[in-house]
Amino acid sequence: MITVLIVDDQPVVRAGLSVVLDAEPDLQVLGQAADGAEAARLTAELAPDVVCMDVRMPGSDGITATREIIGSGSAAKVLILTTFDIDEYVFAALEAGASGFLLKGAEEAVIAQAIRSVAAGGGTLDQRITHKVITEFAQRRSGTWAGTELGAVTPGAPARENDTLKTPALTPRETEVLRLITQGLSNAEIAESLFVEVTTVKYHVQSILMKTQSRDRLQAAIWGLRHGVAPGDFR
Length: 235
Known about the structure:
Shape: globular
Number of strands: 6
Largest sheet: 6 strands, parallel
């Protein structure tokens, strides 16, 4: 069972999404929060698997709350659900450590599947958010690391001046898998592309997540794009 916390300042949105998600046999809504501060508190108390987070809320907003939740060491994954597709919100959410970004206009089945994907360590970007967003994000951040070695950086963490970074020892096969991850391929699709078993791909993916200190595949894709792995369309 995947447990969920819903965060939105509009009661009708929280109630509607709660009904939709609770109707899914493998999803359970543990609670609801009306702002970012309450979201951070309830995440600590309820330990949900996924937090469905609105962006613009009075008081503490969704980006601030995401940063606090991720920074606390919580195992919860954050899926941003918003009516706004402004690029800056996407950049801020990814930098804060969010594992996915969907517009609220997405179909109910798409939202439910996004929650499953995020909970399983996958990443989700709304198809209406174009490839240029993820690529521009990587380009924006790549300048921050200019002059440093490619390091096992925690995606979403702000750069610190004079950081000395160690190069992660990605094997050639892991680099190849990471390149396919940046193209949005699933484990099964990667296995088919490389003519290997899915279990082998899973092993490589887990190794990549560990070496790049990524919380999930989306953050690993960001790391790869940031550090020059051939970019592709992230689905």
